[in-house]
Design a protein that fits this description.
three-stranded antiparallel sheet, 2 domains, 13% strand
Length: 215
């Protein structure tokens, strides 16, 4: 009887030891997975920063995902979380720039309080401000697109040919087709560069404006 008890106790002790080892191994494996996950997220965050610093234009969410997925498996939700972490970090760390979402993409932009210093850096460069005529035509296209030159001229009361050429060269507008009407005039619409230029996410961010009855 004593031998049976000793055998039972020995077996129980062995089981407990084995269970403890299994749990320890499982915990170690879970810790390794967490560490790997954190390491991957840090690397993805660094890649995002590199892409944003290297680009002078907005970088779309899909382009970010396409590049990162070449090296790391990532779901849209995780990528969005990492982007939001970067946004929060730049604010909490008091950085001189912010990660902003505009024109259906993301871009690093300096904080407004540093504008005077940046203006001094570029003060000798040629100004690229829009003329009054360009601003008028651009506003009409933004609110009425797609729209033809004759329709723009009718709203403004003057010829807009030269202004349209200028806006096309600056890639703020683009030709998007032909109107099915006599002469088949070209239809114009704004571009992604327009959204970037004015710091807009999309056309919904445009202020409400009454341009009169559509002709």
């Amino acid at each position: 009887m004593t031998n049976e008890i000793n055998l039972f106790e020995s077996t129980l002790e062995t089981c407990l030891i084995n269970t403890s080892r299994v749990e320890a191994a499982k915990a170690a494996e879970e810790k390794y997975d967490r560490d790997q996950q954190l390491q991957m997220r840090r690397k993805i965050k660094q890649i995002l920063e590199a892409l944003l610093f290297a680009s002078s234009e907005t970088v779309s969410f899909n382009k970010m995902r396409e590049i990162i997925e070449t090296f790391y498996p990532i779901k849209p939700r995780m990528l969005r979380e990492i982007i939001e972490q970067l946004q929060e970090e730049y604010i909490s760390q008091g950085r001189a720039f912010r990660l902003e979402e505009i024109a259906q993409g993301f871009v690093l932009r300096s904080c407004e309080e540093y504008a005077p210093y940046i203006q001094m850096l570029f003060r000798h460069k040629k100004s690229e401000k829009l003329s009054q005529a360009a601003a008028e035509v651009l506003a009409i296209i933004a609110y009425r697109q797609p729209i033809t030159r004759p329709q723009i001229d009718a709203i403004r009361g003057v010829d807009s040919s030269g202004t349209l050429v200028n806006l096309l060269e600056r890639e703020l507008i683009e030709a998007v087709g032909k109107l099915e009407a006599p002469g088949r005039p070209t239809l114009y619409a704004i571009t992604q560069n327009f959204l970037t230029y004015f710091g807009l996410r999309d056309l919904k961010d445009l202020p409400q404006l009454d341009l009169g009855a559509k002709r």
